[in-house]
Design goal:
The chain has one domain: Anthranilate synthase (4-Layer Sandwich). The longest helix is centred in the middle third of the chain and has 20 residues. It has 9 helices and 18 strands. It has an 18-stranded antiparallel β-sheet that branches. The chain is of the alpha+beta class. 30% of the residues lie in helices and 35% in strands.
Length: 385
């Protein structure tokens, strides 16, 4: 854990009892305390609406927030406090830039919303094996070619979610880390390998992250990575994501450029990754790009509409912000949105962990379960420590 990350977490620990927010992305650290202003929308164009409203903010304001996987998400139960799309201007915020902290005070604290005790309640009793079997039947029928299923694991409530987040950041130094606590004691946090969009200085960056293998020992890790690079199933899954991203960017009038496929290594798993870049339009907002790209086949499946319908049929718990987006932007529309993966939802009533796996032709329920186990390892250890 870098010193700026340690300093940010220490400051947030002193602010317990207030809304707390933090992003640590490739050496850049941004965090805030309290809510001065909320930007919220639940329409199908939620990100466009918020991006337009944010143009009226003070030029020095930094906005932090996120949005749900499904635009039809209703923030009930444990997801109260996490609307379809919510971005906040913190009352106090800090940014680690050019080797020093920059502090900004945006204004007074807004009143805190109330939260009623609630948990996540499954609406059916399908096992993981049943879900994968049903997904494969849908794939065999030609209904779709891929669907991403999410697996939840319930754990006891945490005394302070931020402490678990600190342990997670230390365990996953190569990940992008996020923490969003709009109501004290109700926090959504995780460590993701995936960025949905980054926009800065007129340049758009995104990447496809799909296809997974475990990490190995010092002597076997490289072999596992080499096998992943040539694996037919994983390559097919990865290609679907690349094609989706390129097609969506082209529909925005952009000319995307692809990098070489490579490995992205995390603490317990490694992925196939392809960078995609483009020159942005002058008036483009990072939320416009997020609206166009989300959901990618990496978190949903393909075709997207069919995969979303099947997810609604098979998954017993509401995804909420899991596999949605979380990030920041400024008044110019520059910023960065992560894909909210390897996530925990913490409330005073309990903690729920979530990770997913892509199901395609040839998938095996046991192997996909083991993949989600590997993805949850660091998160589970941080929760239980």
């Amino acid at each position: 854990m870098t010193e700026p990350v340690q300093q940010a977490i220490a400051t947030l620990q002193e602010a317990r009892g207030q809304p707390r927010f933090m992003l640590a992305i490739e050496g850049a650290v941004r965090f805030g305390v309290g809510i001065h202003r909320r930007l919220e929308d639940k329409s199908i164009d939620r990100l466009h609406v918020i991006g337009h409203a944010a143009r009226q903010l003070p030029k020095d304001a930094m906005v932090l927030g996120g949005f749900s996987f499904d635009a039809a998400h209703v923030p009930t139960g444990a997801w109260q406090g996490f609307p379809t799309a919510l971005f906040v201007v913190p009352a106090l915020e800090w940014e680690w830039r050019e080797g020093e902290w920059h502090e900004h005070r945006n204004g007074p604290y807004a009143p805190l919303p109330d939260a009623q005790p609630a948990g996540l309640q499954p609406d059916h009793g399908l096992t993981w094996g049943d879900q994968v079997s049903s997904a494969l039947k849908a794939i065999h029928s030609g209904r779709l070619s891929k669907v991403v299923l999410a697996r939840w694991e319930q754990r006891p409530a945490l005394a302070d979610p931020l402490s678990a987040f600190a342990r997670l950041v230390a365990a996953e130094p190569m990940a992008h880390s996020y923490y969003f606590e709009p109501i004290p004691g109700h926090a959504f946090f995780g460590a993701t390998p995936e960025r949905l969009a980054r926009l800065r200085h007129g340049r758009l960056e995104t990447h496809a992250v799909a296809g997974t293998a475990p990490r190995g020992t010092k002597s076997t890790d490289a072999t596992l990575g080499s096998k992943l690079l040539i694996a037919e199933k994983e390559s097919r899954e990865h290609r679907l994501v690349v094609e989706h991203i390129v097609g969506r960017l082209q529909s925005m009038g952009l000319t995307p450029e692809q990098g070489m496929r490579r490995l992205r290594r995390m603490a317990n798993v490694q992925h196939l990754e392809t960078q995609v870049t483009a020159s942005a339009h002058a008036d483009m907002h990072v939320l416009d790009v997020a609206q166009a790209l989300h959901p990618t086949p990496a978190v949903c499946g393909t075709p997207v509409a069919a995969a979303q319908d099947l997810i609604a049929e098979l998954e017993g718990l509401p995804r909420g912000w899991y596999s949605g987006g979380i990030g920041w932007f400024n008044q110019k529309g520059e910023g960065e949105i992560l894909v909210a993966l390897r996530s925990a939802l913490a409330t005073p009533e309990g903690t729920w962990l979530c990770a997913g796996a892509g199901i395609v032709e040839g998938s095996d329920a046991k192997a996909e379960f083991e993949e989600t186990e590997a993805k949850l390892t660091a998160l589970r250890e941080a929760i239980l420590a």
